[in-house]
Design goal:
It is built from 19 helices and 14 strands. The chain is α/β, with parallel strands linked by helices. It has three domains: 178 residues, no CATH class; 96 residues, Beta Barrel (Elongation Factor Tu (Ef-tu), domain 3); 191 residues, Nucleotide-binding domain of ferredoxin-NADP reductase (FNR) module (Rossmann fold), CATH 3.40.50.80. One of its GO terms (molecular function) is ferric-chelate reductase (NADPH) activity.
Length: 534
Amino acid sequence: MWGVILGILTLWLTIRGWRMGGPAQRMLRYAAGLGECRDKTWYTPVKGYTNVYNTRTGIGGFSDRVGALAYALTPLAILLAQRESFLSLVTGIPYQHFSFLHKWLGRIIFAQSFLHTLGWTLVETWLYQPQPKVYTDFLKQQYAVWGCIAMLFITFLTVFSTHWAIKRTGYEFFKWTHWIIAILYIAACWGHWAKLACWMIPSLALIFIDQGVRMLRLLALHTGVVKGGNFGFRPANAEVRMIGEGDDIVARIDFDFEHKEAWQPGQHFFLCFPALSIWSSHPFTTASLPDPRSNVQHHTYLLRVRNGQTSQLAAIAQSKGSIDTIMTGPYGLGFPRYDTQNVLLVAGGTGVTFTLPIAFAAIRQLIVPQAVVDFVWVIRRAQDLLWLSSEMADLKSMLADNVSLRIKIFVTRESTAHLAPCCDIKPVCGKAKAIDSEKTSNQSSSSTVSDLSSGAVLQALLAIDQPRFSVDFMLNEHPSMQTMVEDFIERAATRGGDVQILGSGPESMGSDLRAAVAGMRTREEVGFYWDSRE
């Protein structure tokens, strides 16, 4: 992007310089221009005072222009933050990928607002006389009061949208204060300078249009009128199970719900739990695949339990075992592409909800039976496989029939010795050695796994019963994304065809995978997509 911007500016400058004539002529023109643009300073007497003068410069005009730019950029900042994004409809880019631009555009608006405020503060406190009378009279004016309030609001929005602030105050606090303060900021800007309300009116309109479309989509999913049944709002009743222990607990949510239009693998829904808060919803990728033969679809989600609402959800799961759930969606892109031939899927932790359904879909729709599908899951502990035990058993069972599929599991915080008591697995020397066990293919199907105890299920999932299945224990280490990509490219090169690399998980993993993909050397077309877990 920066290459394009700098290239355009360079070309523009070259053409402009060529039109202005030779070097000598250009220097004369630039010198004349600088002379005309140089700020002039002059002094004017203050009525009623002797030896007291106002100092007049170009600071006021500069501050006004910077402030007007901040007003003009506000509708664009709102547009970049919309979930029901018009930009997504036009470009096909999912709404969440515009959040980066929204964040930085907000910081630019803050910087412009700060310069505008600083400029007029210097004028009213230093250049105009007598003081402090001029400044106190200035602050008593209504437009100045609203300007100070708007500056406080944009400062709040900037500070409390940083990762540091969100981590300490919680996502719910950030979400609702950001939305409310943004509206108050727009209103304060309107009050500060009503002649520029032409930028504030569309900003407010965009906010309420976005919220209105969200509500319509929610009603489309949950009301009987849209579904052709009896009138009424029907939330989904979800079963909630806690899996794991210590700091590695995940809530698995399962429910069945009627859909007229299902979702595509890799898409996500916003889930709201009215028992916790009717005003808050969070995006979660659906780990299950829709059934095209049925109107009733099964949903599976994984939520890592931390502080805030997820800890409250854990308490409800322990007491009731179920909770009403309201959905909005689906959102995001669907994968894999219809013409996909070779796919590398890399997931870290709960990012597997993005890659696992894509793996099933890729195997079912492969154009070339020999095409490569590599599924990689990096987890902290082996027990994390129990999050999606039946689904992983189904994927393992496909190894027997699909020679193109390969599954790699990396455990980063355990050694095989740690698992020996519960899984009857012999320890293997070395940090990154694969498990070696008896073949237990009869225990790999989901129907068998569901009837076993947790220890037996884990043993069945970890058993090396196929040559293209491996589990590597890497105590306090992480797998190399570079090695993983190179190995995949080498396999894909023997089969030929386009390559698609998809992943989801911690941002550090995404950065490593992105760097590895950038260094690839292949003649085939490569598609890359990282689904952020922030």
